[in-house]
Amino acid sequence: xxxxxxxxxxxxxxxxxxxxxxxxxxxxxxxxxxxxxxxxxxxxxxxxxxxxxxxxxxxxxxxxxxxxxxxxxxxxxxxxxxxxxxxxxxxxxxxxxxxxxxxxxxxxxxxxxxxxxxxxxxxxxxxxxxxxxxxxxxxxxxxxxxxxxxxxxxxxxxxxxxxxxxxxxxxxxxxxxxxxxxxxxxxxxxxxxxxxxxxxxxxxxxxxxxxxxxxxxxxxxxxxxxxxxxxxxxxxxxxxxxxxx
Length: 245
Fold this sequence. Notes:
With 245 residues, this protein is of the alpha/beta class.
């Protein structure tokens, strides 16, 4: 296992069409971004940061004792935001884990599994997570992934992949879970690349990596989380948290 230093960075944007000020929404008495931060701090990461574009989030993170970095409002993606945040700190970082700020129920073990994969396999440039899905329950809001026998992503799509043609043989369907780990050098390369045609079509930034020959290792997990996209999702997450107590 390598001695690479790891940073978990939580991109936390204030503006949201469906849920404005989402990171500051209360969930069981704590703001959402605090739940995510505490899950990350419990991991084996050396550094945990919140990368934000808004002083209200910056101040809130500092208030609960977290560490926040202000970034530009203009970033087109969370990946660009975390790259700026990492560039602003003094610590030497080798591996960066991008944990979404709207994943308050993310299991710390998933973060640790990605860290172990990156530390144990120096040839892997980038890694992510997928979980088994149910074909009949999929919508275009669910990102699907197909991968090779050696667990590297072949494609991500909002469409159903693999498509089950009449007379075809059923194949497993996997949901992509939007947590990523990158080599710092790969992250810097990624954000320097222009958006790709497939990325622009599907509105999935991970396709920029595949279009430019960056292989993405897909780690399979049986665990689950609840991504918070709407106030209704927040209610579901609160019920799940309370049930677990």
